[in-house]
Design goal:
Number of domains: 3
Helix content: 10-25%
Distance between the termini: 39 Å
Strand content: 25-35%
Radius of gyration: 24 Å
CATH class of the largest domain: Alpha Beta
Shape: globular
CATH architecture of the largest domain: Alpha-Beta Complex
Amino acid sequence: MITPVILCGGSGTRLWPLSRKSYPKQFVPLTGKVSLFQSSALRLSGADFGPPLILTASDFRFIVTEQLAGIGIDPGAVLIEPQGRNTAPAILAAALWQARSDPDALMLVAPSDHVVPDAPAFRAAVAAGTEAARAGQLVTFGIRPTHPETGYGYLELDGDPGDFTPRPIALKRFVEKPDGARAAEMAASGRHLWNAGLFLFSPACIIEAYRSHAPDMLAAVQAALDEGRPDLGFFRLAPAPWARAGNVSIDYAVMEKADNLSVVPFAGGWSDLGGWDAVWRQAARDGRGVATSGPATALDCDDTLLRAEDGGQEVVGIGLRGIIAVAMPDAVLVADASRAQDVRQAVSALKAKGAKQAETFPKDHRPWGWFESLVVGERFQVKRILVHPGASLSLQSHHHRSEHWIVVEGTARVTLDHEVRLLSENQSVYIPLGAKHRLENPGKVAVVLIEVQTGSYLGEDDIIRYEDVYARG
């Protein structure tokens, strides 16, 4: 049996404005109807795989469980990282957890934001590496390059991959991200593969590798696990020892120093969607290289990506050549495709000027559902709120604002001080400043309401929680 270990704590900026710190790309349906995280979980499921072990951040824990439930997958465990410390501590935490719960199962470590169109071919590559992993090898997976790429590290093989039939081959060395000329040489050599950040090994072997090459990290992560605590259906690693773990990748901490490494070459389609140019390459394109998504129209365009992420908008491109245009309700990106990797600079510039669009997604996802601001004024705000069936907001009050709730879909149970009432569609309730209140969805369909806030301060931190089924502070 193989336990998938899915890493989904990152908050990449290269796919801004669709990917942001509050709702990063792994949770977004970039290339299909399900998110990249859901695609990863589905790809790593089946007869040979056990329930996935998830490593994520506290802010994403309910998104993870909601999205897994949406595809019918129950996680084996969800470990919450107190802070992002790169892949080395996260993978070690998973290995130590696995060594306690199922030491005989192999671990397949995978990022949550990659695209692999041919899932059966990928599972065949994993199967090709299992014997070597059970024999004590640390198995990684290398992707046959399709073009010179400066955004990836490379794996130099110690043998000829031949026709790229999946099989373990000895690894000669890791190669850091190259410049353009070196990338072209390696892509043409036949002995260099893209480093996909995918690994297969037993818990005992990878823990021993940390013991040999990163003993300080082993001590810190072991303490974070020992001092951690359950929290609802999650497990929180202890923050103090976790902070002592090095903020480094597993390649740097362990893999580049180990001598029991094998590589399984993979010639199927693969992308880490590391920029909008990669999204364009993965998208269905017309005869002129134009890819559109949502209500977008291209007229006399070539090699261009047009995306409209809101059904109420229309994006039109005329005479564009090599352009990326992505429209969100609150932000629009227009860039030359050759500058796709510079999008992160735009995010930095927006953060410097204090623009909330740099990190905050238009929809604020909560464990009970989500809300979005429709109109914001100096002393008022209008929101649309969706509450999932069976979900409940906390019992709360506000110091600085009052609220009107108007139910437009479903039936809501509303607590207002000591009174509880049901509100159906087109009914409303007024929440005075300071009143204790809660909204619940007792039904089988989502509740949607319009909330009108008025007051001197409308920030999300003006909440006093008295009871909360999600154990938030």
